[in-house]
Design brief:
Layout: H1 10-15, H2 31-40, H3 79-89, H4 106-115, E1 118-119, E2 131-134, E3 150-157, E4 163-170, H5 178-184, E5 186-192, E6 210-214
Antiparallel strand pairs: 1-6, 2-3, 2-6, 3-4, 4-5
């Protein structure tokens, strides 16, 4: 017979020398989880379809979402696939609304519009876990974009005011179509200099203009997000 001591009052349990355990708080995804997963995939290609590093992702999957199949069965431009995969698979998976993200980098800009987490003011200090979106086209009079060139993820705030970003689908060979570029690109870590972090800047090692930072909804902050840093860009 099993004795269900959990039905006894806590005082009685303590008197009997039985420890009372409180339920553990639900695990929540924090910015450190996002950064760790992104950095764990640095150097990887689109997946097993890659011509430069045909390895599984760090969790053992064959691709980052549809990175190897989204272009009519072949590799597609996958910077957004990578960023979406990170947001969805970081420990805890408490980031909400990712189902509306797709292979278009602009979907991260529009995610920020829809969730009230888009930052386009040049004074905004990005946080770890933010998506940084480049060269967004927003039609006149509209709030949502129709196109963006690239999206990366902020993975660290450096003491000199620069930020570390991780970028999927970077450095591929151009001129031979979408699939070839995607099969020859990799996940690359790029630091952005302090003076090139604000929205409207064009980081020299990225080659595109920052249109905004989109913060994930449901992400828990950690002390590493700010580290007491408060820079005047």
């Amino acid at each position: 017979m099993y004795r269900h001591v959990c039905t006894l009052p806590a005082a009685a349990l303590l008197a009997a020398g039985i420890a009372v355990l409180t339920p553990a708080a639900a695990w929540a995804t924090d910015s450190g989880d996002v950064a760790a997963l992104a950095l764990a995939n640095a150097g990887k290609g689109a997946g097993t379809c890659s011509q430069v590093n045909p390895a599984p992702n760090s969790l053992g999957g064959s691709a980052f979402g549809t990175s190897c199949t989204g272009n009519q069965g072949t590799a597609e431009y996958w910077c957004a696939d990578f960023a979406k995969w990170i947001w969805q698979n970081a420990s805890g998976s408490t980031i909400t609304g990712t189902g509306n993200l797709d292979a278009g980098a602009v979907s991260f800009y529009n995610y920020g519009v829809d969730h009230g987490t888009l930052h386009t003011d040049p004074s905004y200090r990005p946080r770890v876990g933010d998506a940084v979106v480049y060269d967004v086209v927003v039609p006149s009079g509209k709030t949502h974009g129709t196109f963006a060139d690239h999206v990366g993820l902020v993975t660290a705030l450096n003491s000199d005011g620069s930020i570390e970003t991780v970028n999927g689908d970077f450095g591929g060979v151009s001129g031979n179509g979408e699939a070839y570029f995607s099969e020859t690109s990799t996940v690359q870590v790029k630091d952005i200099a302090a003076g090139q972090v604000p929205v409207g800047s064009a980081p020299s090692n990225i080659g595109m203009t920052i249109s905004g930072y989109s913060s994930p909804s449901g992400l828990s902050a950690t002390p590493a997000d700010a580290q007491g840093l408060d820079f005047d860009w």
